[in-house]
């Protein structure tokens, strides 16, 4: 996924910034502690599809 595209996207819950995790193919929202999946190059920006970040992930400030 292109970084320019990620810069245009916002969290559907809080409208905050997202961080691209290329390894896991997810878009991370630190504000809501949610990870939105990227499937076949398309971000799935639905809160019901997102997973909650673990405590360790919340503390990791990459």
Give a structural overview.
- The protein has 62 residues and is of the alpha+beta class.
- The protein has a single domain (3-59), classed as Single Sheet (N-terminal domain of TfIIb).
- 18% of the residues lie in helices and 27% in strands.
- It has helices spanning 3-8, 55-59, and strands at 19-21, 26-29, 34-39, 42-43, 51-52.
- Strands 1, 2, 3, 4 and 5 form a five-stranded antiparallel sheet that branches.
Helix content: 10-25%
CATH topology: N-terminal domain of TfIIb
The major pleated sheet works out as: 5 strands, antiparallel
β content, as a range? Answer: 25-35%
Overall residue-averaged pLDDT value: 91
How many distinct beta strands? 5
At the first level of CATH, what is the class? Mainly Beta
Extract low-pLDDT stretches.
none
The string of secondary-structure elements, in order, is: HEEEEEH
**Rg from C-alpha positions?**
11 Å
- In terms of quaternary structure, the protein is single chain
Span between termini? 18 Å
The computed structural class is alpha+beta
Query: How many separate domains make up the residues?
Result: 1
- Enumerate how many helices there are, as a single number: 2
CATH architecture: Single Sheet
Shape: globular
């Amino acid at each position: 996924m292109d970084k320019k595209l990620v810069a245009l996207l916002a969290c559907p819950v809080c409208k905050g910034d997202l961080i691209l995790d290329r390894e896991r193919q997810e878009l991370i929202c630190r504000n809501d502690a949610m990870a939105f999946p990227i499937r076949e190059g398309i971000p799935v920006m639905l809160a019901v599809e997102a997973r909650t970040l673990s405590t360790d992930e919340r503390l990791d400030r990459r």
